Each structure stands twice: as C-alpha cells, then as structure tokens.
Amino acid sequence: QVQLVESGGGLVQAGGSLRLSCTGSGRPLSGFVMGWFRQAPGREREFVAATYTPQATNYADSVKGRFAISRDSRKNVVYLQMNSLKPEDTGVYFCAVKTRSEVAYRSWGQGTQVTVSS
Predict the structure, then answer these.
(1) For 48-87, how does the pLDDT look when each residue is reduced to its tens digit (9 = 90+)?
(2) Could you tell me the sign of the dihedral formed by the alpha carbons of 49, 70, 82, 115, in that order?
(3) E strand or H helix at 69, and its extent?
(4) What is the pLDDT of residue 111?
(5) Mean pLDDT, residues 35-54
C-alpha cells in the first residue's frame, strides 16, 4: 500500500506560480500512473493532470499550457508546477495513484489548499 502526502499549497496572487509536491511512501511510485485532482468549494472533484511517463502525460483543458506534471523517481515525488494562476484555480489539490490497468485511482493524499487571489 502506498501512502501519499501533498505539500506546497498556499496563497498566491493571480498570475503567480506554485509548485505542489506529492511524496510517496510504502513503495516506489515509478510504474504507477500519478494524477492530480482538485476540488473547489461546493464543486465536485475534477481531474487536473496525470502522468505515466514523461511522454505519457495529459491535462485538463483548463490548465493546458499553464501547469506541468513531472516526477522525480529518486525522491519518490511527483510535482505539479502551476504557472499563470487564476482565481478559478482555487481549491484543494489531491494527488492519487493507480496502475495502468485500473480505472479508478486506488490511493489518495489528504490534499493541500491552493488559494489564488484576484
């Protein structure tokens, strides 16, 4: 069983940047699909980005060109670099893990709050 802990959230002005980290423990994250999701107040959780390999990444249309997902296998960490932040990016950001054959993500972190002020 893998445990995930997110960090790096905070308060930032519109146009600013943040880098979120998702640190895994219990087993290596390499070989898994890693995803980032977010949930704004009063809204359902939504997909943000996912990666399996550097060549196999995908993004929600709302963050394409602004966010970048990457991983450091030596540190067992997955990052979400967020640039040109907008107030609508505000929410709790979660990382999650699954195998390529699974449909649903199997393990989730506790989330980190991102607040973008206008």
Answers:
(1) 999 998 889 999 999 999 999 999 999 999 999 999 999 9
(2) positive
(3) strand 67-72
(4) 98
(5) 96
Two tokens, residue 20: 């979120």
Share of the chain above pLDDT 70, in %: 100
Strand partners, 18: 82
Q: Position 107: which residue type?
A: S
Radius of gyration of the chain (CA): 13
- Length of the chain, in residues: 118
Q: Which residues pair with 109 in a beta bridge?
A: none
Q: Distance (Å, rounded) from C-alpha 4 to C-alpha 15?
A: 28
Residue at token pair 């967020």? 82
